[in-house]
Q: What sequence folds into this?
């Protein structure tokens, strides 16, 4: 089995250029944006007769989960000059969940026309508006990640500026920010976690298996412990979040405390005549005030589930403050952790809308 770049062979240990420093032969430290250093936990697996080591940053306290701006990287971009060897090095920072939410809120994607309203003109208009909305979003994301301002006095002028650049390079830069820097790619390019899990499966196929003798062997949810792991492209270590089980009782309380109100009713509009029928009331799922209330409830639910599942208390005196702390983390980190809690801990994959 070939060992790839991030796995550490004990005889030929590789050095990463990311922010991890070795203080001696056995302890490596991860330096976060706060300036604090935390020791990495090295785990060694025996693969085909030789030891392979992986480093882990175990997120068992709030201070170990860095803010989004603490995640950074670079992207090499063609300048467009005749000299093919000339490239631009673009330094990039991660975007938090809050930053991403704010960008999407101020640059909404237009709603597709309904079948009854679909014409060649409406379809063409929707496609045009959709492309413009995507470019507006890219403007906001690229400015936030680079810390640089795209030339133009208005968003439209900035969109025009990007439109005059190489579309392939614009797409690649945006994709790098989204998938790599913000960690929104489900399959990181370097595959560090994938390597670890592959080696782990190969080295311990039957270890830890206990014969079932009675239901007493099945621990209660609150005493059960799990772990969520992920890797970010460029990091020389794997992030590991110890997770507590959530009982049916706790889940029921969270769902009860964060139950959505029913949307207001409005007269139904006839799709052909466009007239409102006040004798036929329908639920209005597009009511702005109702949507704001639902958004706040979803944020409250996110904070409650994270508080119940993580091995540390989410900082904050109330759930608004707790959600504010969570939303300052890297968007990809939060989304992945949310999906894990939703699928593996709560067991309702796809049924819950935390955000």
A:
């Amino acid at each position: 089995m070939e060992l790839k770049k991030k796995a550490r062979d004990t005889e030929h240990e590789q050095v990463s250029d990311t922010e991890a420093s070795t203080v001696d032969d056995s302890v490596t430290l991860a330096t976060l944006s706060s300036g604090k250093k935390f020791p990495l936990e090295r785990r060694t697996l025996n693969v085909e007769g030789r030891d392979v080591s992986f480093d882990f940053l175990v997120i068992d306290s709030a201070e170990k989960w860095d803010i989004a701006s603490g995640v950074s990287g670079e992207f090499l971009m063609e300048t467009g000059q005749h000299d093919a060897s000339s490239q631009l090095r673009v330094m990039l920072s991660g975007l938090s969940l809050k930053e991403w939410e704010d960008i999407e809120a101020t640059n909404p994607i237009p709603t597709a026309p309904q079948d009854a309203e679909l014409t060649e003109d409406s379809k063409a208009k929707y496609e045009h508006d959709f492309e413009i909305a995507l470019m507006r979003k890219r403007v906001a994301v690229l400015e936030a990640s680079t810390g640089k301002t795209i030339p133009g006095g208005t968003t439209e002028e900035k969109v025009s500026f990007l439109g005059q650049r190489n579309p392939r390079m614009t797409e690649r830069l945006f994709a790098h920010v989204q998938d790599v820097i913000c960690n929104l790619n489900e399959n990181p390019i370097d595959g560090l976690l994938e390597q670890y899990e592959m080696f782990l499966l190969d080295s311990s196929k039957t270890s830890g298996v206990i014969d079932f003798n009675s239901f007493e062997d099945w621990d209660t949810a609150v005493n059960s412990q799990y772990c969520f792991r992920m890797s970010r492209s460029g990091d020389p270590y794997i992030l590991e979040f110890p997770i507590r089980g959530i009982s049916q009782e706790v889940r029921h309380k969270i769902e009860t405390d964060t139950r959505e109100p029913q949307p207001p009713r409005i007269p139904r509009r006839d799709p052909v005549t466009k007239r409102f029928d006040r004798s036929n009331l329908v639920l209005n799922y597009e009511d702005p005030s109702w949507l704001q209330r639902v958004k706040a409830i979803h944020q409250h639910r996110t904070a409650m589930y994270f508080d119940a599942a993580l091995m540390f208390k989410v900082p904050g005196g109330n759930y608004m403050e707790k959600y504010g702390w969570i939303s300052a983390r890297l968007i990809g980190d939060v989304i992945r952790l949310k999906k894990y809690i939703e699928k593996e801990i709560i067991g309702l994959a796809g049924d819950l809308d935390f955000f």
Q: What stands out?
A: The first strand starts at residue 8 and ends at 9. Residues 120-146 form the longest helix (27 residues).
